[in-house]
Fold:
Amino acid sequence: MMQETMQVVVDTPSYIKCRQVCKANVRANRCFKFKKNLEAVSGDELFAPGHSACAGCGATVAVRLALKAAGKNTIATNATGCLEVFSTKYPETAWRVPWIHAAFETSASVASGVEAALKKLGKDVNVIAFGGDGGTVDIGFQALSGAMERGHNMTYICYDNEAYMNTGVQRSGSTPYGSSTTTSPAGSVSIGNKRPKKDMPQIIAAHGVDYVATASIAFPLDYMKKVKKAVATNGPAYVHVLAACPTGWGSASERSIEICRLAVDSGMWVLYEIDHGDARITYLPTKKVPVIEYLKTQKRFRHLKAEDVQDIQDMIDERLKRYSNEI
Amino acid sequence: MPRGDVLHGSRAVAEAVKLCDVDVIAAYPITPQTHIVEDLAEFVANGELDAEYVLVESEHSAMSACIGASATGVRTFTATSSQGLALMHEMLFIASGMRLPIVMANANRALSAPINIWNDQQDSMSERDCGWIQLYCETNQETLDTTIQAYRISENKKVLLPSMVCLDGFVLTHTIEPLEIPDKDAVNRFLPEFEPAVYLDPDDPMTLGAFATPADYIKFRFEQEKAMRNAIEAIEKADREYKKETGRGYGLMEEYNTKDADIIIVSMGSVVGTIKEVIDQLKGEYNVGLLKIKAFRPLPKERIKEVLKNARVVSVVEKDVSIGLGEGGLFSEIKGILYNLDERPKVLGFIIGLGGRDITQPDIRDIIKLSKKAEKDVVDEVHWIGLR
Amino acid sequence: MTVSLGGSVKDPGSTVKTKTGSWRTFKPEIDNDKCIDCGNCWIFCVEPCISKEDGKYVVDYDYCKGCGVCAHECPVGAIEMVLEEK
Ligand SMILES: Cc1ncc(C[n+]2csc(CCOP(=O)(O)OP(=O)(O)O)c2C)c(N)n1
Ligand code: SF4
Ligand SMILES: [Mg+2]
Structure:
């Protein structure tokens, strides 16, 4: 297990300014490496505004940063879901890279065909398949498993908002334990979703895929680095990025990034990568935040009782321990 | 030089695909199609065909991969049958809606349950509304020739719709027949290099598969129908030019003894061979003709009407049924085509050969006898053959 | 209006024709004197509708839906969400 060093390249006047404010009680991880952040994010804007995502939608950040990391020599495929619907209402499109959508469960299989064609044409183009959590861990599972196992040179990015949002917040295999959704509502005799979240990155890793990573939109540098590595991998690669959904999570739109940061700081979501079998946690919070701080930002968890929260805390502590041993 | 050979129907399809220089093949096994993709795998493994061969994990993904590859600007092929075609259902509409000229062979087979691997045409008949061109073949030679023609038709700029080449499972796929494999130069002259109309390219980024609101959706559907109408001419044109190169042509449909016939049988696929034989045997005794439908989609309605309008009885012989309507799809459509005529023939439907049940010459003779009876007497509209 | 072949859209980034600024209730106002150039508002903008012009971050109000992420992520409170006057 290794932790990324948190050193920052110094000697810019604004860095010093930032440092001063940080001392004035702003959490360090909010702006550490900001200089590098700025450089990394300065690539072409390949995702245009004017789309119809909800205000504060995290999926857009996931896509925008991924495209910046991959660059414009990219073909994107997309599963049906919020991202596809809000970005391509005919006759308009938010995409500035070539993009194709066929069906809900077909982002990986369509990307397989794109990749095969590029190979035949002798063209060297990045292929990125985007899918929501439903389109990835549930209905698109088989197609994704096939594509990963076949070894296509593609990057699959699952933007995980932990439910079927486009159809109105139904539970998916990626919905966390205790979350209330429209098909797993909390009630007098139900805690909401009764099952823990399916561990998709580990399932993909079990395919022997060369590069697997988890990410959070609140850690742009970490995320973009991972996308860059994934795209540079000669073969299949998988990135699973947590992306808040204010509409489905019942959170304030301005808190989307904060929530995705709290998820990591609480251990609810762990940032790691498995690079050619080499596993490492890429970011560990310096001070772990109690999970209640994360849960209380979202209405989907508001029904949880103190003992439920303790159960969740125990679950994530146990998982983090396991990851720390295994990764 | 064209080459004579004796081949299974499956092999005939594979030879055609090779001649067309297909770039991406998506493969998934199902009886009785499997030999097609096996033969193609062999061609690729031996370096006889320079294609990317994608071993998908389902037919749903086979069609999705073809969609992705075709949208990236290359010629694609897949083959399926029965359950596989049914699993693709969702993607068939998407391939045609996106106007991608994919070509697929369907080895016609019955649908479960009960599971049955033998031939009927319920599988492709159940996909008649999905916007694919459907061409039914009588012989292995016709299957080979039709597969080559299908690329030319699908890639025609006024068409740009996917094509399904339907060949009867086992009856054609697993039966050997002497045939002629056209010369590669002739195919090259007939089939120009694929020039995609829309394709994914970072130098000219476009979006394919956007979502359309009610304001536009119906227009896309109408455009597809227009393209299907254009396909009627495209099929004839391709056939004419193919004939110039190879001496063989099939048209949209084939008329056999239809002129002044009292009874005309309408059918599709390999069974028309048997029907032709019986018609020959009964010459002088019964005045019977045959209309073989090759292009079921687009269905050349006006031509069909012209051929059938003067007959007294039209008997549709087919290997499918719409449960709940109690009649076959082709029968319903032929009735519909004739309905608005002032004077129209009687139309009878014969459901036969389901799940691979043999269709014998006596069966056809019985059908003709019953049709004769219908000239004067009242007989049931629909008959199931082979219930005993 | 005729439609394109198979629904293809050959105008990349054309959602810019749709001005989503009308969705807004609160609008972000950036105080450039307070700004320390950390770029958080721009990095995390979900539209995106914040860019840097002449060394200053500016909001394109044609598209800003007023989600408030920028103001929330600004470490020095340089962005204020003010009620939109319509
Ligand atoms: C085969 C099929 N089943 C169901 C649907 C309906 N559907 C469309 S989008 C969607 C939810 C997508 O969820 P997810 O993949 O998590 O993406 P999100 O909308 O949450 O971003 C569903 C259920 C569909 N389009 N196709
Ligand atoms: S419902 Fe959620 S995921 Fe979908 S657009 Fe709105 S915020 Fe984004
Ligand atoms: Mg989702």
